[in-house]
Write a structure and sequence with these properties.
By secondary structure, the chain is α/β, with parallel strands linked by helices. The protein has a single domain, classed as Rossmann fold (3-Layer(aba) Sandwich). Helix content is 36%, strand content 17%. It has a seven-stranded parallel sheet, with helices on both faces. A three-stranded mixed sheet has the order 12-9-14. The protein has a two-stranded parallel ribbon with strand order 7-10.
Length: 311
């Protein structure tokens, strides 16, 4: 299968390329705004010369791809906040690039990386198959723009009901390639461990479902090997984890020191989400079966990060 990767500089895209690199049956063409960054990364992974690399101008309508996977977007809360309303233009531009290709090649599969944020701002309980998107249409705020951009893209895709487009809503994703300067709870934890500092965190109860790279790869391959469909799936691990369990596990495994305090600062670029995960298991209809729990994945990948940081 010949696969075009749009947005090849993103963390999750690079992790998928590494997963694909263990299989000889897939050819990849990697497209990015900064192809030189992709080249340096491939060289660091001893993969230079293995894949085609180009900027987006090199994405040609007459090249025959079996699938397109679109990763273009923001990669962390601070970046999402910095992008502001431009997230609409960026999402639309590269989505239209893929959809224009599908018009000429209707058998090409298209996987679009969406987000759990497409459900809107209500996560007082986890999403499920009956959850409705909730957007404050009369009081839109900057933290809503990312969600609206993803929801709009999904609506466009569902309107093209005969096109083989699957949107993948990723809620939480974690791997050893994570930039630990990003402002997530898990990266705050890792920096505190690395620097031997006390993590100060709020008492807010939250639950997260961290997807491991191997399970994301399993989800993608399940979708690509299943009969063509126009659908949306939520990504999930074998089991989510709440904040207190995560803190205790990181304390036991890596010596995390932490303190619960009301004054802790949090970056919520897309709004407050206490139960940011999904019970919608439609991905199982495509053969997806996650192998790792959130805790197993976090401990495995955190060990790699911390080992590297202390070398």
């Amino acid at each position: 299968m010949y696969i075009a990767i749009l947005g090849a500089t993103s963390q999750i895209a690079k992790d998928l390329v590494l997963s694909f690199s263990n299989q000889s049956k897939h050819r990849l063409a990697l497209f990015a705004r900064r192809p030189e960054t992709v080249e340096k990364w491939l060289e660091s992974e001893n993969l230079m010369g293995r894949y085609t690399i180009a900027d987006f101008g090199g994405f040609k309508i007459d090249e025959k791809f079996d699938a397109i996977i679109n990763f273009v977007g923001s990669g962390n809360p601070a970046q999402t906040a910095a992008m502001g309303s431009s997230i609409f233009d960026v999402t639309l531009q590269y989505d239209e690039m893929a959809l224009s290709y599908l018009q000429q090649h209707p058998d090409c599969r298209y996987l679009f990386l969406s987000s759990g944020a497409a459900y809107g701002y209500v996560f007082d309980k986890p999403a499920d198959v009956n959850t409705k998107a909730a957007i404050a249409i009369n009081d839109l705020k900057p933290q809503d723009w990312y969600a609206v951009a993803k929801l709009y893209a999904e609506c466009r895709h569902r309107s093209l009901m005969h096109s083989p487009i699957v949107d993948i809503r990723v809620f939480n994703y974690f791997s050893c390639s994570q930039d630990i300067a990003a402002r997530y709870l898990i990266t705050d934890i890792l920096r505190a461990i690395r620097d031997n500092e006390v993590l100060r965190t709020s008492p807010e109860y939250i639950v997260r479902d961290f997807l491991h790279p191997s399970d994301f790869h399993g989800l993608v391959t399940s979708l690509l090997s299943s009969p063509a469909a126009n659908a949306v799936v939520d990504a999930y691990s074998r089991e989510p984890i709440d904040k207190s369990e995560l803190l205790s596990a990181m304390q036991e495994k890596f010596g995390l020191q932490y303190e619960i305090t009301e004054a802790a600062a949090v970056v919520n670029a897309t709004g407050r989400k206490p139960h940011y995960y999904s019970l919608n298991k439609r991905a199982a209809d495509f053969g997806y079966q996650p192998r790792m729990t959130s805790l197993e994945g976090v401990l495995l990948e955190s060990g790699k990060i911390l080992h590297h940081q202390t070398k």
